[in-house]
Amino acid sequence: MKNRTVKVDYLARVEGEGGILVKVKDKTITDVQFNIFEPPRFFEAFLRGRHFTEAPDITARICGICPIAYQMSSIHAMENAFGVTVEGQLRALRRLIYCGEWIKSHALHVYMLHAPDFLGYQDVIQMARDHGDAVKKGLQLKKIGNDIVTLLGGREIHPINVRVGGFYKVPPKQELNALGDRLKWGLEAALGTVRLTAGFPFPEFERDYEFVALRHDNEYPFNEGRLVSNKGLDIAVNEYDNYFTEEHVEHSNALHCVLRDRGAYFVGPLARYNVNFNRLTPTAQEAARASGIAPPCRNPFKSIIVRSVEMVYACEEALRIINEYEVPERAVVDMRPRSGIGYGCTEAPRGILYHRYRVNDKGLITDAKIVPPTSQNQKTMELDLRQFIPDRLDLSQEKLTWQCEQAIRNYDPCISCATHFLRLEIEKQ
Amino acid sequence: MKKEKKPKLAVWKFSSCDGCQLTLLDCEDELLAVADRVEIANFPEMSRRVVRGPYDLSLVEGSITTPYDAERIHQVRRASKFLVTIGACATAGGIQALRNFKDVKEFISFVYANPSYIETLNKSTPIADHVLVDFELRGCPISKQQLVEVLSAFLNGRKPSTPTYSVCLECKRRGTVCGLVTHGPPCMGPVTQAGCNALCPSYHRGCYGCFGPKETPNTSSLASYWRTAGMKNDELLRLYRNFNAYAEAFRKESEAHEK
User: Fold this and answer.
1) Is the domain defined by A3-419 classed in CATH 1.10.645.10?
2) Which domain holds residue B128?
3) Domain boundaries, chain A
4) How far, in Å, CA of B200 to CA of A98, rounded?
5) pLDDT per residue over A75-86, tens digit each?
6) Which residue is closest to A141 within chain B, CA to CA?
7) Is the confidence metric ipTM above 0.85 for this complex?
8) What span, in angstroms and rounded, lies between the C-alpha atoms of A292 and A198?
9) What are A349-364's pLDDT values in tens digits?
């Protein structure tokens, strides 16, 4: 009888505080826990009583890595409650700022958080000693994403210019044009990133996932669409609560998001890509095919290539929006708050981010529900480890631990996001 | 040639959104240069490598909200020569300090299905309530320039130069028209510490206080000005009860408008 435990007390290169605990007995896994010990912050509770106009600024503070996602989901939910639709150039500017967030978040994850795993470095600084040019290119790509967010949002972290109904101020055309040349460089750099990551060594690993993502009639999704999966799910955003729920699972006291009667599902770049491949630009599709990940791609380790493909898409989409931009007459559309419920779901860099608010006739929030992507992937992450580990029990403890970490980092988990939601148990030692 | 020993930098996280430590990774042009001058010895968001303490400089993000963290911050202090807190969570308790004005038990049962799993303190408190802090860097989030200034000051053995005057001075300097005198949206600028380069007024919106109270703020005077302009108690309360709600000056002012 051989007992073995893989334990990562503090998982590095993710946003937030979490750990992994895996128990093995006689080559059988008896327990897998992706532990979250990030303290709870109670956003849904203290949003009650706040004014609807404050929701984008307050919920942005759930996550410093993807504040745009929180701002976008909250404003779309509020506009849904008030029966308002934002169209034309204002809608395009929202897509543009989201392009910026995807580029900065993906470049951060690809180059600084995940690539070191594939190349065998502890971190990006070590990696830079041998791959200086690649790291510098990654940092510049990340900076382009940050510059888009800063131009439209005022600053890269917790931007201040997004509001329900539009923006506080819209940029003149020449300010956007100034980004054009850098985005063209960014597009080449992103294509180079696809080639670079496609050359990484990937473990043989696949699972038959249910991929869930937004799907829009003619766009790769950012802010709008139906919730669609590769296994037949096709619902409107306001039906989310009827199809998704949380449940207790065996061997764990943690509750997980699941699809009712169907179980775990997968959100994020790989899900978006598999559900929406034909909505990518021809350049992005071609780069993906050339790198050997034509859909369906079921190897979560290859998410790093998909993130790179999405950076190609985001650079191209940003260029298109900038080229077609004309300053809108007004920065914000008229609206009047009314009592009701609003639903919003947008594609954060890590996957679908669902918001639901109840607002009264004074415009005050009376109820809030927020489901971030990392909570939705948590069960899938644990199931991955259950299948991943048994074939690798011959590895040394150090190697096995590192590979488990890498498998979790496939999801770019954002624990800061997940925590205000996840049911957590603090393990006392 | 003897290799020069680099000072050890550590980054610690408590209850927060990760945005302030991300600011270090957002220094795309400076990061590799910084890594040249300091040994990044403990920064889990960036590296799985952990070098044992003591550390020459610790950057601490986040507020104290659990019994475990209330212990852990003392360990961090003991392992650190200089301890600098970064951001509104670490310097004032952050947005999660809104619980400090409410019943936290009700909060837990509203958000979590199994309240018994949740171990949390009644209040979210700044780091300086628990240990000696050598320098506080304000902001929600902190400013990249101010972070680089703190690192550079530390490496050169001098005190960081960050202003304690109000956002108004930054507005004047950049030539933004004052929203308060032109009946624009409510603005916290007169009572808020500078550091953001008066960002919000330049986007036609009022300052909402990310950098916390300035030195000697006259919060009640600003409140009466708004009240004269027709603002109600609950609106005044929300303005002061925000990302720096538990900073003393803002806390007292918001409590003055509680029904």
Assistant:
1) yes
2) 8-155
3) 3-419
4) 20
5) 999 999 999 999
6) B28
7) yes
8) 8
9) 999 999 999 999 999 9
